[in-house]
Specification:
The complex is a heterodimer of chains A (about 290) and B (about 725).
Chain A (H helix, E strand, L loop, with lengths): L1 H18 L7 H6 L9 E5 L13 E10 L5 E9 L6 E4 L6 E6 L11 E10 L8 E24 L16 E3 L7 E11 L3 E12 L4 E12 L2 E2 L1 E4 L8 E3 L6 E12 L4 E24 L1
Antiparallel strand pairs in A: 1-2, 2-6, 3-5, 3-7, 4-6, 7-16, 8-9, 9-10, 10-15, 11-12, 11-14, 11-16, 13-15
Chain B lengths: L3 H21 L4 H57 L8 H28 L2 H18 L6 H5 L13 H19 L10 H21 L7 H16 L6 H21 L5 H6 L1 H11 L1 H8 L6 H8 L3 H9 L9 H23 L15 H14 L6 H10 L6 H21 L11 H14 L7 E3 L8 E6 L3 E2 L9 E8 L6 E11 L6 E6 L3 E2 L2 E6 L3 E10 L5 E26 L3 H15 L5 E3 L4 E8 L6 E3 L6 E9 L4 E11 L12 E4 L9 E8 L12 E23 L6
Parallel strand pairs in B: 1-11, 3-18, 10-13
Antiparallel strand pairs in B: 2-4, 4-9, 5-6, 5-8, 5-10, 6-9, 7-8, 10-18, 12-14, 14-17, 15-16, 15-18
Helix pairs in contact in B: 1-2, 2-3, 3-4, 6-7, 6-14, 7-8, 7-11, 7-14, 8-9, 14-15, 17-18, 18-19
Classes of the chains: A mainly beta (about 290), B alpha+beta (about 725).
């Protein structure tokens, strides 16, 4: 009896686990859904048999790539290229290094909950194998480069009068973490530091992290506001242009420091903190082509 | 319905009445007869009862004796365990022993009574019950720990407690997964529901754990087996198979801590079951695609046959078969036969899958040579690399000369010097001399100069994608021709050529007899229709070519000789290739990122690749040896270095032409890209080609990404292969 109960419980749990997250949601759910959360990426997929699993020397084939924008933001200057294919074995048209320019791709939104999808085609021709080789495998990369934006908004509590005991307002959260804003680049943490005084200063230390599979190029801060007031922001470790930063190979995160000076003292209150950034992103997906005799 | 007691009472009364009448003399003949019958019956009964008693007692004695023996062996096992675990064992007192024996005896009697009842009433259930009780008693007395393989082979395992449906269910579901993967790629037909994945991870995996628990007879202590399985599932699904080092270290530490707890509590007894728990995990890993990962990501070279066997192996079916009980049903022999047959077929399938890859030319592409090929290669190497001094002797010499501090360098130097001496003395036939101006010393100096030539230090490797290289062999049917062989018959030998690329080859066969000791050399001639001036020339272009020759001595043989059969092959052609990645101008961090993330995955071999032909070009292009990335930097030269490698064990007669396709890279010296070299016989191993500096290709200067390029080097050459045979012959006059 116990065993039967256990097996039955296991089956139920299995079905629950597999059903979690698989529902597409009703119309009401979509309206309530906030796309600008979590980490999302552009999905790149080769269609089945394009190219075929095995390619014979001297034959023509097609390479069809499905590009699906799952970000909550539109993409600009989208370019798809192929790298790593040796022209002695495979000829690709158009020129794989120049690739296809896809211009713009819409992101997920209420009016377009699944994001924009584009199909890109390359024509290929397999050349001869080396001498009497049985097969040859080419490892190549489908690369997608684009420019996109990142919006961040959250409500923060400002309390310049830290010595006040009786304050029925909000409580300052010195540190808040976030899962993402619907893009591969994400603001993951914000620290709020208040320098108290009659004219207090407030500083936000914003942690920016590359959570995606690709590489972030240059990130530029377009705007940062606390309520209606602009913030003075600098990237730590930036050069002359302090509103820009480049993500180098080893570093996957950077810190943006924003300050607001001379805040009028008073009771604590909540106000929105909003940021808008623009960044370059490159994504590479590894694939294989096999030529067989 | 009259009860038994009532019947007995009436019979007794009847008998007493008859006895009374008989004594009184008033009994009739029939009554007397009846009395006689009753008495006879009673006598028979008495005898039967006595016999039963005797038999019963004997059986009882035998049973008690058996029980006693088992108790002794159980105690011995317990003693052994105690000596390891060091738990004080209560030694029963004599009275206790007697009590236990008495109890055992009583229990045995009870069992006997039950058995007797079952014999008289033909009751199978009572017997089974008695057997069941016996087994329980046995299990109590014998050590509870069972050997894994013993349990797997069903000896001493509890058949009754293992649900019979469990193993067949796993087999059925395993077969279903197999069918889904083969037919629909693992999804429910017509949908994208990953049914194979769900079945494997969430249904079969836990069932497999429980099947193992029952198989090992560990229903009371199942958690040590199930815990490792749980950890694997958590890592696989909740942590996304993360392989980041900090996470792995922390996670494994936590798992080890949790697993150590039952092991400590049970004083090490739970450790084995925890390890057994890895068995379902292994099968899940295999089913989830460990092997496709190895072939896809680590590029294990396997043929489509092996690929099919391994990728579509029904792992869960195999597991289910392993979990089957030895005797599935006590009543249906057909079912037992079926499952037995299934076990045999599964084992056969596993054996074939494991054995096939080791068979040459069936499983693996020919990276692994056969034993014969190994022997030949070894012989070639010995011949090719000359006679070096025994390293032990070199070491002793270095120690004698007190060169301890640089012992290894000294040994290497001595080895090299011995090789040069061999070349100068044996091959170039110079007489050893200490005179600086002598040809021998000049030869030694030349060898030393060549060794210092950095060009010779370019290496290459065999192209694994070319399974059949161009090779040729000279073969004697017998390596020794004794006195009994008549030289007038001629000495036959054969030429065997593998020519997969169908090159147009010309072969010239010849032979000669080298006298041993004081015996003079004798020339030989090849006899045949097309023989010309002692040699025979054949032209061919077939993929596989073989032809015999007969060698005749031009003079009478008298003594011991070494017959040398030679074949010169003309117009052999080989092409080598080398891959490099051009990145233009990029900052160092981008260069390293490209190298790590892309280039190293696309271009895996930094050396030049060539088929295992008799000879081929080894070459290197780049900023430094084996550097795959070439960048456009004015302060870094791009050097081309090459040599011709003699791999066939014979002699490279002429390099008719060599050509290196530099792919739009302009050299500072055009001789490095093409040319020819004649009379190259004197070279025993690598023949250097002139190096040069190349310009960065103009078409790749402003690339935004990286571009792979493959360079090819073609070699056209003549080659000499030979084989030797021992001949011993004396003329009639001297016999």
């Amino acid at each position: 009896m116990r065993k039967l109960t256990f097996v039955a419980a296991l089956l139920v749990i299995s079905f629950l686990l597999t059903s979690c997250g698989s529902s597409s949601g009703s119309e009401g759910d979509i309206i309530q859904q906030n796309f600008k959360q979590g980490v999302q990426e552009v999905q790149i997929r080769l269609l089945e048999n394009a190219p075929p699993v095995k390619i014979y020397p001297g034959s023509n084939f097609k390479m069809v790539i499905d590009v699906d924008n799952q970000l909550a933001y539109d993409l600009q200057d989208v370019t798809l290229t192929l790298t790593g294919l040796n022209e002695r074995y495979v000829q690709i048209a158009p020129n794989p290094l120049e690739g296809h320019y896809l211009d713009q791709m819409l992101g997920r939104s209420l009016t377009n909950p699944s994001g924009e999808r584009k199909i890109v085609e390359f024509d290929g021709k397999a050349e001869s194998l080396f001498l009497n080789a049985e097969q040859h495998m080419e490892t190549f990369f489908i690369k997608l480069a684009y420019r996109s934006t990142l919006d961040f908004t959250d409500t923060v509590c400002l309390n310049t009068n830290v010595y006040s005991i009786y304050d029925a307002g909000c409580k300052v959260e010195p540190q808040k973490t976030y899962s993402g804003q619907g893009a591969p680049l994400a603001i993951t943490k914000i620290e709020e530091i208040i320098f108290p005084g009659s004219a207090a200063d407030i500083e936000f230390r914003i942690n920016l992290q590359n959570k995606g599979r690709g590489n972030v190029g240059e990130v530029q801060l377009l705007s940062a506001n606390l309520g209606n007031d602009p913030l003075q922001c600098d990237f730590r470790g930036s050069g002359l242009e302090t509103n820009k930063i480049k993500f180098v190979e080893n570093k996957k995160e950077h810190t943006l420091i924003c300050r607001k000076e001379r805040i009028t003292a008073g009771r604590s209150y909540k106000t929105p903190l909003s940021l808008r950034l623009v960044y370059d992103y490159k994504l590479a997906q590894q694939n294989k082509l096999t030529l067989v005799r | 319905m009259v009860s038994r007691e009532e019947k007995l009472r009436r019979r007794l009364l009847e008998k007493q009445e008859l006895e009374r009448r008989s004594e009184a003399g008033t009994a009739s003949n029939s009554e007397a007869e009846q009395l006689g019958k009753l008495e006879a019956k009673e006598e028979r009964k008495k005898v039967i009862v006595e016999e039963r008693d005797v038999r019963g007692k004997e059986e009882e004695r035998a049973f008690l004796k058996k029980l006693g023996e088992r108790a002794i062996s159980a105690l011995e096992k317990l003693d052994q365990k105690e000596s390891q675990v060091k738990v004080p064992v209560e030694i029963p007192s004599k009275e206790k022993e007697q009590e236990e024996e008495h109890e055992a005896g009583e229990e045995a009697e009870e069992r006997e009574r039950k058995k007797r009842r079952s014999e008289s009433d033909n009751d199978e259930d009572a017997e089974e019950e008695a057997d069941e009780e016996e087994r329980r008693e046995r299990r109590k007395k014998i050590s509870p720990e069972e050997d894994f393989f013993t349990a797997l082979l069903n000896k001493d395992s509890d058949k009754k407690s293992q649900p019979k449906w469990l193993a067949p269910l796993i087999i059925f579901l395993g077969g279903l997964i197999y069918w889904l993967r083969v037919s629909t790629g693992g999804e429910v037909p017509g949908t994208i529901v990953p049914a194979a994945f769900i079945l494997s991870h969430f249904i079969i995996f836990p069932l497999a754990g429980y099947a193992l628990v029952y198989k090992l007879g560990r229903t009371e202590s199942r958690y040590p087996i199930l815990l490792p399985m749980l950890f694997f599932i958590v890592w696989f699904h909740l942590f996304g198979r993360s392989t980041e080092l900090p996470f792995i270290v922390i996670y494994l530490s936590i798992c080890a801590l949790i697993l150590a707890f039952p092991a400590l509590v049970s004083k090490g007894q739970a450790l084995k079951p925890e390890l057994y728990g890895l068995l379902p995990t292994l099968f899940l890993f295999l089913d989830s695609g460990l092997l496709p990962y190895l072939t896809g990501n680590l590029h294990l070279p396997i043929t489509p046959l092996t690929q099919g066997l391994l990728l579509y192996m029904p792992w869960w079916v195999v597991y289910g078969v392993l979990m089957l009980p030895e005797q599935f049903s006590e009543k249906h022999e057909g079912l037992n036969f079926f499952f037995g047959l299934l076990k045999v077929l599964t084992v056969l399938y596993i054996i074939i899958t494991l054995v096939v890859p080791t068979l040459p030319n069936i499983g693996y592409e020919s990276i692994v040579p056969s034993a014969e090929e190994l022997e030949e290669a070894q012989a070639k190497v010995r011949e090719q690399y000359g006679k070096k001094e025994n390293p032990f002797i070199s070491t002793l010499r270095c120690i004698w000369n007190q060169e301890y501090g640089t012992l290894q360098a000294c040994v290497d130097k001595k080895q090299q010097q011995s090789e040069w001496k061999y070349v100068c003395e044996e091959i170039e036939k110079h007489k050893p001399s200490e005179d600086e101006d002598s040809p021998f010393q000049k030869c030694l100096q030349e060898q030393e100069k060549k060794a210092k030539n950095k060009v010779l230090q370019v290496g290459g490797t065999i192209d694994p994608t070319i399974r059949i290289p161009t090779t040729a062999k000279v073969l004697f049917e017998q390596r020794k021709f004794g006195e009994e062989y008549d030289p007038q018959f001629g000495y036959p030998f054969g030429l065997q050529v593998e020519n997969p690329r169908k090159l147009q080859i010309k072969a010239e066969a010849s032979c000669h007899f080298d006298g041993k000791r004081e015996t003079p050399d004798i020339a030989g001639e090849i006899k045949g229709q097309k023989a010309l001036e002692s040699v025979q020339i054949v032209d061919f272009s077939e993929e596989q070519f073989s032809t015999p020759f007969i060698c005749n001595p031009l003079e009478e043989l008298n003594g011991e000789y070494e017959l040398v059969a030679e074949v010169r092959l003309f117009n052999l052609k080989t092409i080598s290739r080398l891959q490099r990645a051009f990145i233009g101008v990029k900052p160092p961090e981008d260069k390293e990122r490209l190298r790590k993330e892309e280039i190293s995955k696309s271009l895996r071999t930094p050396e030049s690749l060539a088929p295992a032909d008799l000879s081929y070009i080894q070459f290197d292009i780049g900023h430094s040896p084996k550097e795959i990335i070439i960048e456009d930097k004015s302060n870094r030269n791009i050097l081309l270095k090459a040599n011709v490698h003699n791999a066939g064990g014979g002699k490279l007669l002429n390099i008719k032409s060599y050509f290196i396709d530099a792919q739009n890279m302009v050299p500072d010296n055009s001789n490095c890209l093409q040319g020819s070299l004649f009379n190259t016989e004197k070279y025993t191993t690598d023949i250097p080609l002139p190096p040069c500096v190349l310009e960065y290709p103009s078409d790749l200067q402003f690339i935004t990404d990286w571009v792979p390029r493959e360079f090819r080097a073609e070699l056209v050459y003549d080659y000499l292969i030979s084989q030797k045979a021992e001949i011993s012959h004396k003329t009639e006059a001297l016999k």
